[in-house]
Amino acid sequence: MKALSEKQIIEKLKEFEGWDYYEGALHTIFEFEDFKEAFSAMTRIAFEAEKLQHHPEWSNVYNSLEIYLSTHDADGVTEKDFELAKIIDELIG
Ligand code: H2B
Asked: How far is it, in rounded angstroms, from Cα 57 to Cα 65?
C-alpha cells in the first residue's frame, strides 16, 4: 500500500474529529473514566486491529490512551491507517 502525501492526509483528516497528523502518523489521545475503561477499549481495538492485520502504536497511562497510526511497510500513512482510525472511532467515539 502506498503512503499518502501530507496534503492528502490533511484533507482526509477533516472527516476525523480529534485526530491530527503528528510525527508522521495519525495521532490521537483518548481519556476514559478510569484504567479499566481504557484497557477495555484497548482490548476491543486489539481484536479489530488483528482482523485488519494492522496494528496501532500506543501507550496507556491510567485512564489515557495515546495512539499513533502509520504503516511501517510504506514508511508513512496509508488508507489502512484511516481505516483503523475509523474503526477506533466507531468502537470508542
Ligand atoms: N501494522 C502497521 N501499523 N503497519 C504495518 O506496516 C503493518 C502492521 N504491517 N501490521 C503488517 C502487520 C505486516 O507486517 C503483516 C505481514 O501484515
From this structure: 11
Q: Which atom of ligand 1 is nearest to the CA of 70?
A: 3
CA nearest ligand 1 atom 3, residue: 55
Amino acid identity of 3?
A
Cell output for 50: 488483528
**pLDDT string in tens for the chain (93-residue length):** 899 999 999 999 999 999 999 999 999 999 999 999 999 999 999 999 999 999 999 999 999 999 999 999 999 999 999 999 999 999 997
CA separation for the pair 1, 42 (Å, rounded): 25
- Model-wide pTM > 0.90: yes
What is the whole-number distance in angstroms between the Cα of residue 71 and the centre of ligand 1? 7
Name every protein residue with a CB atom under 6 angstroms from any ligand 1 atom.
53-55, 71-73
Going along the chain from its start, the domains and CATH numbers come out as: 6-92 (3.30.1360.20)
Distance 60 CA to ligand 1 centre (A): 21
